[in-house]
Every structure is written in structure tokens, then in C-alpha cells.
Amino acid sequence: MTTTTADAVVIGSGPNGLVAANSLADKGWDVVVCEEQPEPGGAVRSGEATEPGFIHDLYSAFYPLTPSSHYIAPLGLEDWGLRWRTAKGVVAHPHPDGRCALLSLDLEETCASLDAFAAGDGDAWRQLYDLFLRAGPAVLAGVLSPLPPIRPGVALLRRLGVAGVVDFLRFAVMPARRMTEERFRGDGGPWLISGNALHADLTPDSAGGGLYGWLLCGLGQRHGYPVAEGGAGNITGAMVDRLRAKGGELHTGTPIERIEVAGGRARAAIAADGRRFEARRAILADCGAPALYRDMLPADAVPDRVRDGLRNFQYDNSTFKLNWSLDGPIPWSAEPARRASTVHVAEGIPGLTRSSVQLTEREIPDRPFLILGQYSMVDPTRSPEGTETAWAYTHTPQNFLGDAAGEIAGDWDDPEQAAAFAYRMEEEVERLAPGFRKLIRRRHIQTPLDLERTNRNLVGGAINGGTAQVHQQAIFRPYPGTGRPQTPVDGLYLASASAHPGGGLHGGAGGNAATAALRRERARRLFGF
Q1: CA neighbor of 104 nearest in space, from 276, 233, 184, 221
Q2: What are 343's strand-pairing partners?
Q3: Taking 90 as the threshold, does the pLDDT of residue 336 lie above it?
Q4: Which residues pair with 270 in a beta bridge?
Q5: 168, burial (CB in 10 Å: exposed 0-12, middle 13-18, buried 19+)
Q6: Contact in structure between 365 and 358 (CB atoms under 8 Å)
Q7: Residue of 479, 309, 466 lying closest to 398 (CA atoms)
Q8: How many CA atoms lie less than 13 Å away from 369 in the CB half-sphere?
Q9: What is the DSSP string of 213-280?
Q10: Backbone angles phi and psi of 243, in degrees to 5
Q11: How does the average pLDDT of the chain come out, rounded?
């Protein structure tokens, strides 16, 4: 079998792997990326899933974290053909009674939307957005940086002062429900912030959920929720083209099964067909922590404390996704929802809570909360004129105990059960947009099992690389006492969403791993160890 040697071997070509590879290539390293699937991208891919001419984002789709990422922005992907598009209507949360909360790129429009729920709620949002402008950049930098985030912490202290930081710490740990109860009199603000908190597997009552919802709303107010013109796959394409121009190599159809360790150091990644990819300096693994430590490393290379810590590793809830080609835009009863690229489908906080509680009880929700994307107002290149490309996803339990509606056994390999749950999701859209079903041309279903089959990192359909709940974040990710990309094996770095800071197209895990590898090599040169 052949042997390929490089300074760095990157396992996996998801966005974290490609960010890591590009970052190292920029420093002059020879980089080889090994990807299991026939095409690169991980959960950033697109294609004609329903019918020709309709381009669907097959996994992730909208990217509020990307414009502010200090790992992705320097890559200058726009120079490699990527074009971002953003709708003025960022997020809408309609209700069957006709009310609709709208987060708009126009601050005045956002405030007017919230004032329609209760006078003064627009000013409440202005105050929260002002806090975002003062503290948000430091918070985001702190979230994405290696731990401890010293520089972002100092920046936050300078912006807010000691008393302000103490107040902010309380703000940061509050659930979305309590945060919004303290600031809004009407329902609109709570709908937007709580709905955004649920973009991860948080709930209206999760500690820290308010911070996550506020951060996403602030990013949406400032930058919108950008999409890649022509499909998310163009993000991957730009990263791959950039890497190759820097001399990097990409090997698709190359599943790495094990990592060779000698003398306490990671030496090579071994593919399923026996090919060796030897690393002179580092191996960076854009794969799940359990798979890395339990399956790919020799047993004697993993300390007992790591195995014990991973025993309680918790995946986020499973994801069930639908893609539609439609004969026209979705006919939302609430007009603002017709102008928003992202729509939250739930009957307010009670609907969000009901779905969250059922998931906590490991039941398939009877009224699932949907995050829905529609493209006609943001990227008309996705479908023929006069038509619509849309998607929606929701969560189901990883290990379910039952169906809250008593109709589905949860066997996602059974086409009838998958179709029944798809119909349930469509029913939620129909309630808010009568006539929606009549517009469906084709439907494409991605069950949790489908997601895992096409991307081994999406275990059970978990798209976040592990729960975003506070007990598995920061120094508890992926197991207590870590929070950094280094592993117990010298020269091996965890570069996936299983590592801090978790999921999202921000490149944090990959960028942190590349930074750690560069620092380790610098120390080796200076001090000889």
C-alpha cells in the first residue's frame, strides 16, 4: 500500500477540517486532508435533492456566526468565488392569531414589530442590541477562542467595567424565559430570543439559553443570516479551491480507520484500504470525540480518566429534515413571514416549551417546533422563477421512549413512519400558511439515520457534535477538564464540533486545533521538546 507524508494530516473535510487545513497551509505547512465520503464538506453541502433546477442545502443552510468568525473571515473566501446573500427579513415567528415577530436588518422595523406586541418592547430590544454592540464581539471571540479566553475577557472588562461584567455574568447564565420576562412586556421579544435558543438543543428554561438566543438575534440584527449563493456547497468549494492553491491535497473516498501511535506521539493515519498518511508534525481529527478515543486510537494510548469522562458524553437530539420544491412561495397568513428567510414554526413560548418537554421526556413531539428556511427572497438562483426551494428541520429524541401522539414507533428505516412524521411537520406549516401543501411538487426526507449514513459525525442525526447544554460546554467538552483541542497523545488534536466551542459554521474547533499545532511546533523548535 502507498504511503503519503505531509507536515499535517487532517481527518475529515467538514468546515472545521478545512479551516484547520487552510490555516496550516497559510503558515507554509504541507497538508493532506482525508475524507471518507465521495465529496468534501461534511455538513456543508448542497444538491438537487428533489428535482432538477431546485438546489437544496442538505445539512446546514443559514450562517449567522460566519461573518464574525475570526477564523473564517481571514480566509477571504469571496476571492475564491463565494458570494453571500442576506434577506432583509432575518427571522420571523408567526402565530395562528395573525401576530408575527420579525427580526429585520432594519433596526426600526424590528423595534416596530416588537412594539406591536407591547408598547416599549422596541426600546427594550434597542437596549439589548446596544449591549450586543458593546459586548457581543468580545463574547463571540471568547466563545470561539481556546480556553481560557484571556484577551476577550480583558476586552469585555474594558467595555463594561467591573460592575457591568458582574451584571453580564448573571445575564449570561439566565434561561431565555427569565431573561425575556425581565425585559419585555409582550410576546414578540421572547418568541425571537427563545426560538433562537432552540437552534441548538437548548430549551426556554436551559441555563445559558438566553445568552445564545440574544447572541444569535444580535448577529441577525447586525449581519442577517447569510446564505451562500447557489448553495452551501459553494462554501466548501471555495475552501477546497483555496487549500489546493496553497499546495494542500484532498483525498475523498478515504475513510481513516485508525491512528498509529509510537513513542507517545501520533505518527500516521491509516485508511480502511491500508494506505498510510504519515504526519511529520500533527494529525488533526475533524471527527467525533467518542469515535476518536474509542475506535481510532490504540487502547493503551487513551488514559482511563479520558475513557471514564467520555462514558457520559451526551449527543444532542436527533434531527429530522425535509426539503421541498414548491410551485410558489409559502403563503404565510402573517405577511412579515413572507419576507423572512428563516421562520420559526411554533405557537409561541407554550409551543416551544411543549416540544422541549416532550424531547426531555424522550418522546417524539406531537407538535414539533420547526426551523424553516425559504429562499425566494434571499437567493433566487436556488429554483426556477416563480417557484420556491424550502426546507424545515426539527428534533426527535436520540433514544426515544414513545410518540406523544401515539402514532409513530420511531423506526426511521420504515418509509411509512418517516412519511407520517413528515406529514406531521407539514401540518404545522399548514396551520400558519393555509394552502402550503397544495404547493408541494416534491418532498425529500432526511431522517436521523440518513444523516448519519452520509456523515459519520452526525451520530443518530446529532448536528451539534454533542449537546450544547452547559454541563458539556467549555471545560466540560468533550469530557470534564478539557475545553482545548489537545489530546493525551502528542501531536494529535481534536478539531471537530465535539471540541470547544461546538457546532456552527464558525471554524472555532478547527481553528483552535490549528493554532495549538502551530504553537506546539514552535515550542519544539525553541526548546527541543
Answers
A1: 221
A2: 92, 372
A3: yes
A4: 258, 276
A5: buried
A6: yes
A7: 466
A8: 30
A9: HHHHHHHHHHH---EETT-THHHHHHHHHHHHHTT-EEE-S--EEEEEEETTEEEEEEETTS-EEEEE
A10: -60, -45
A11: 95
